[in-house]
Amino acid sequence: MRKVGLALLAVALMLMAPSAKSQAAAPPLSRQKVIIDTDIGDDIDDAFALALALRSPELEILGVTTTFGDTELRARLAERFLAEAGRPDIPVMAGAPTHASNLFTQRPYAEFGRPAMTPHGDAVNFLFDQIRRYPGEITLTGIGPLVNVGAAIDKDPATFRKLKRVVIMGGSIARGYGDVDYGTPSPPQAEWNILNDIPAAQKLFASGVPLYVMPLDSTQLKLDEVKRAFLFRQGSALTDALTILYHQWGQQTPTLFDAMAVAYAVSPELCPTESMHIRVDDKGFTRPEPGSANAQVCLNSSSDRFFRFFLNRLASR
Known about the structure:
The protein is an alpha/beta fold.
């Protein structure tokens, strides 16, 4: 226990020492308008990503849309999470439900104390309403399978192209799943968010919308025991909700894949990108090939820099 206590002290001291760059940074002139498209409720990283967005004053969250599987239950979960974090004003919309065989681990949180209610509004219609209201201004942050994205492109590709940009967590360029900080990296794999709607991913990469991609190569960020202890002891409504969801998730060390997509929208230096031409093949692999760039892709990130940013944000009051 003494070792954990010393490690917690080290984390706290690290966070208390802002860099010269952050001290000199000017406050943002205006907030970025964002919509977050999420499959919150299965893995735990979506909840941490949404929490980061809520703690980022640079972002104006126009709404949260849910995708894949039981989208209505996901919407109820997101709605409760937002309310407990003090943001019940943020609208939540549900995408079309799909088949899903994976476990909805955080179902008790979504269902507890929640009587039956009218269905949430349609995610794709909401997206288009916001684009028409703010053409060229909205960042769509996709941290789930791209079901809603594909449906939007099918419905009205011209309006979809009026997004400012799309930032996604998705794909695998040179590294697959597994610890990538040591040993021989695993080879590229078909990543979850791409694999669960391959046609939608193919449409997005061909859409012509400015696309920023945070693949497995740069998003395998482990929230270890010391960082969890620091975060969960903060005692805010937001971190208390995260603590509950973490325990319902039922595993030990989360990998915060999705949080990098949110972090990039706020602080792009955390995940520098390079221009690439990416082809999504019929098996869900994201293949870099010669050709005109259709995406900006981040292949490397610093876990230390990310967690300095992330933990500072979530520990703020």
